[in-house]
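Quick check before the chapter quiz. The format below is the same one you will see on the exam, so make sure you can read both the input and the output lines.
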Amino acid sequence: MYTAGPAAGAAPQTPPPADRFEQIAPPTSLRKTSSVEKHMTEVTLDTDVLVAGGGVAGVCAALAAARHGAKVVLAQDRSRLGGNSSSEVKMHIVGANCHKGRPGWREGGIIEELRLDDAANNPQRCWELWDALLYDKLVSEPNVTLLLETTLYAAAVKAQRIAEVMARCDKSEHLYRIRAKIFLDCTGDSRLGLEAGAEYRWGREARSEFNESLAPEKADRETLGSSILFTSRLHRQPMPFKPPKWARKVTKEHLKFRKITSWEYGYWWIEWGGNLDTIRDNERIRFELLSIALGIWDYIKNSGEFPDSANWALDWIGMMPGKRGSRRLVGDYMLRQEDLMTGGKFEDAIGFGGWPMDDHPPGGFDRPDLPPNTVLRPPEVFNIPLRALYSKNVRNLMMAGRNISASHVAFTSTRVMGTCAVVGQAAGTAAAVCAKRDLIPREIYERKPVLRELQQMLLRDDQSISGLRNEDPADLARSATATASAEEPGAAAGLVLDGHVRDIPATKTAPGETHQWRARMAPGGPWIQLSWHKPQKLRSVQITFDSGFQRELTLTSSDGIHRGIIRAPQPETVKDYTLLGRKAGSQEFQKLAEVSGNHQRLNRLKFAPVEVDAIRLQIHATNGDDFARVFEIRCYA
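Here is the expected output.
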């Protein structure tokens, strides 16, 4: 998201001043010696929203809540943010667009903002710069207090509500007591929910419980295993490799269903431990995964099957298993296979998913007789309900990420990080609504006007919800008439007012839909104009540009996946433009805002209040495309 002017609810564009250092280190005035551990310092923090876990879901949740005015504490148990997408694991973010298999359905909102910033500023595909980007977003947000290397370990619950949680950072010798109105579990393993006594599931439900064809006949405690990845680099001379004695001896029989076609980055199917306790057996799982990964590299280098690998050498191997399955918290509704296959037509929809149901044998690499995954693809994207994002029995507990309320089968789709980002943004926005209005999450669902308001807030923040459109009563553009200097056939100016912010690609069963104004770039640049019969007092305009949703956009070390990804500002996105306003009775337009060098899809412009009967968006340049493209223009008083 690009913001010009002091836009409420938007990320600041300047570095945080020195006096805001307390957002990442508690000030001395809040510290006191612990009565329990004499060498630790106790710190008490009061906030609106506590987010536990700093993976993609937690980052998006914290930013969403903070941008809607809530004070947020984010506690992350690692030294960096991003979870499985961080440089500790290096898993690329995937989602509803299914590696180009479902073009047009890339997630919008905060995750799109992050991807666009990363693509523009990290063309070299450096994972540590992705870590730094997430850190920058959070420390630059005034409403967020970021606690890194801080582990939550206890919760006090009264009358089915969490009163406070305890967390510790041994690196800085701090014990935290954190009190909040809403608590949001984005830990993946549901540690916050566990400490609060929230109901949860572990393992696979029986086929009969939700009538799921992908479920086993009988319920069990098995789940998806964890993975360790590696990267390698080509050198100018042969690079020998000698494995440690404890590395697995991999043979061709192990790889019957696991193909090696390149080795610069691999492999998601280095998976193990789904039939164990993926939390408490993590050390054993780490050892086995390292032994498998190094055994596979030994096979690549020394089996004679891959002579082209002679000059290749490992340059990184993960030490933290990337986890898939563990605890899933139970909400008022549990998402299931049928919901995914029928589009999830929920009245409380808050965002969409679309990755296939992608189940793996719990034994992972130890089951060479089985394919590494079984896939069932939903025919269309599916909505996810708010009721799957809050606890059934802990009144002020929400969840976002791979631990939302879903059956094991549904989880095999919703677990991917693009979808985790979507539910993170939704949960963070809902948490801010609850904190502001003194509600619990269930009351948003029960109070239908508040639910509709939440959905419109999400749409305004570029979070698409399948089947919903902009009906924001505060958007003055909805009563305007759109005209343009030029337009392409089927891409008329009026489409910026139709309430949709993405084109819908054609499928085998349905024609495509265009929801953007498009005009060819020409000398002077095209323009699009909104006019009103009566003057309107405006102080902000929001524009949604095209950022190439038909392509995949993710940071990856896989050269195969990287092909087709543009690691730069997306060419369709408008780069330079001017926003003009015309006062009632005048023929002249005056400049309201001017932007150059834009690479973001969502732009919010703030300016001094002005009364106009028309605004004009004058396009000067794109980031390379031959057409100016605009999905939506909104106007607010």
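If your answer matched, good. Residues 30-208+328-468 form a domain with the FAD/NAD(P)-binding domain fold (CATH 3.50.50.60).
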